[in-house]
What we know:
Blueprint: E1 3-9, E2 13-20, E3 25-32, E4 44-45, H1 47-65, E5 72-79, E6 85-88, E7 98-99, H2 107-115, H3 119-126, H4 135-145, H5 149-154, E8 158-161, H6 163-171, E9 178-180, H7 181-184, E10 190-191, E11 196-197, H8 199-204, E12 214-216, E13 219-224, H9 227-230, E14 235-241, H10 242-249, E15 258-262, E16 266-271, E17 284-287, E18 297-303, H11 308-316, H12 326-331, E19 340-342, E20 360-362, H13 370-398, E21 407-410, H14 417-427, E22 431-434, H15 439-451, H16 458-464, E23 467-471, H17 477-494
Parallel strand pairs: 1-5, 5-14, 9-12, 15-21, 21-22
Antiparallel strand pairs: 1-2, 2-3, 4-7, 6-8, 10-11, 13-14, 15-16, 16-18, 17-18, 19-20, 22-23
Helix pairs in contact: 1-6, 10-15, 13-14
Adenosine-5'-diphosphate binds next to helix 11 and helix 12.
Organism: Rhodoferax aquaticus
InterPro entries: ATPase_NBD (IPR043129), Carb_kinase_FGGY (IPR000577), Carb_kinase_FGGY_CS (IPR018483), FGGY_C (IPR018485), FGGY_N (IPR018484), Glycerol_kin (IPR005999)
Pathway: Polyol metabolism; glycerol degradation via glycerol kinase pathway; sn-glycerol 3-phosphate from glycerol: step 1/1
Amino acid sequence: MTYLLALDQGTSSSRSIVFDAQGRTVAHAQLELPQMYPQPGWVEHDPLEIWRTQVSTAREALLKAGITAAQVSAIGITNQRETTVVWNRLTGAPIHHAIVWQDRRAEPTCVELRERGLAGTIQAKTGLLVDAYFSGTKLKWILDNVAGARGLADAGELAFGTVDCWLMWQLTKGKVHATDVSNASRTMLFNVHTNTWDADLLKELGIPASMMPKVQPSSSLFGEIHPDVLGHPVRIGGVAGDQQSALFGQACFKAGMVKNTYGTGCFMLMHTGSEFQTSGNGLITTSAAQVSLTPEFAIEGSVFVGGAVVQWLRDGLHAIKTSDEVQALAESVPDSGGVVVVPAFTGLGAPYWKPDARGTITGLTRGSTVAHIARAALESIAFQSAALLNAMGRDLSAANGAAVRELRVDGGASGNDFLMQFQADLLGIPVVRPETTETTALGAAYLAGLSTGVFHSCEQLSQLWQVERKFEPNLPSARVAERMLQWEHAVAQATH
Ligand SMILES: Nc1ncnc2c1ncn2[C@@H]1O[C@H](COP(=O)(O)OP(=O)(O)O)[C@@H](O)[C@H]1O
Ligand SMILES: O=P(O)(O)OC[C@H](O)CO
């Protein structure tokens, strides 16, 4: 039997999954990752904890599967993106905690870049909007603020990496300092047309090129793990940022195919093939996972509060005891009774980009109950995602692309049938949930399997992808327009 091991290092946990050669899950292990909030707006992880939890889950998953590393054909790595680690090449020790993607401390540098009129050049080269979300300005912050860092960096003694790169350094005991194109494209330092680090942007932020990892296609041989780690040297055959990995795991290989992941937040990505398109509607362009040297792209939008609104119902309002109870509560009323929840707890992400917006509930009457609020809260996940898909639709028609035919879904909240049906109703296209909703890890396993001969082609992977349930739209278009308008009115109030 042939197995693939996917390491899925997420923001809140490290997970490892063993898959068989049909892409079926064989065993799964997960450990939570401690979060650190040293100042308002700052979020950090301990890089050594990232490594410790990841390697523990890998060992546990192999044990649960009843196999040894010698039976694993290849390892695939997928990871929370943008999170920035800097370590000393000689000692291997991180010089600072990892600065997590949610961390806003680098905003002043971004203001400066925007004021200097660099946003257009940066978007043309990297596909990104200038924002503290991406790694480049976080890396600059570390060099500017950690004592002695700049001197060591100039002397070539420091290494930078996103989490995939840091894990590979650890897995190979310092032999491999590499990343893949999809992770590199989240740094704001990477030219996505040439698939190389951009010398001008590195210079602009004062980052020595010697710190940067080698960049490879997502499906390629990155190296072999040290035998001490899992008891056997296994090849690392695939690496991708978690959202691009999910796009790959959903078998969205062609232009116009879209997936949405409903986790804490929601991440929607549309493959645009080898066409580099910038969005005129508040979305970003990113490198998709690549199996060759040819650049491939996706347009991406993110919703900050997706499934997290259900956590708020549970922990903030005590409206439910477990997340699973939300569906029954929402369905205990025939509609939301005119209530609209805008969960702008930390501002609104794409396509609105309103950092100062705050959570708002509109349409409350004397008859409103907690069930109406719960229903409206669930609906808000679908409204925000619909705004993203509508923005993608506008980008597509501007580029004369074909209309999107279906939305493939995954992530924790995609298990909620009410939410998925309402999503299909709002979008007017089928929402399709696959058999395996662990598509992030599956994507990494696919990438690793492709480069090591376990799989032969993307066509073969498309055939492995199986529908579990298809939600057909079932709401008259006039009613959809009315509901979207109600939502946009509420958003306007949240952003006042
Ligand atoms: N039945 C459900 N209905 C709606 N949301 C849910 C349900 N079960 C879990 N969730 C939400 O899904 C999210 C967890 O999904 P997951 O994919 O594990 O997220 P992440 O990878 O961001 O940690 C949580 O925010 C949780 O509130
Ligand atoms: O780890 P997740 O699933 O929260 O994903 C985080 C994203 O990669 C951030 O860009």
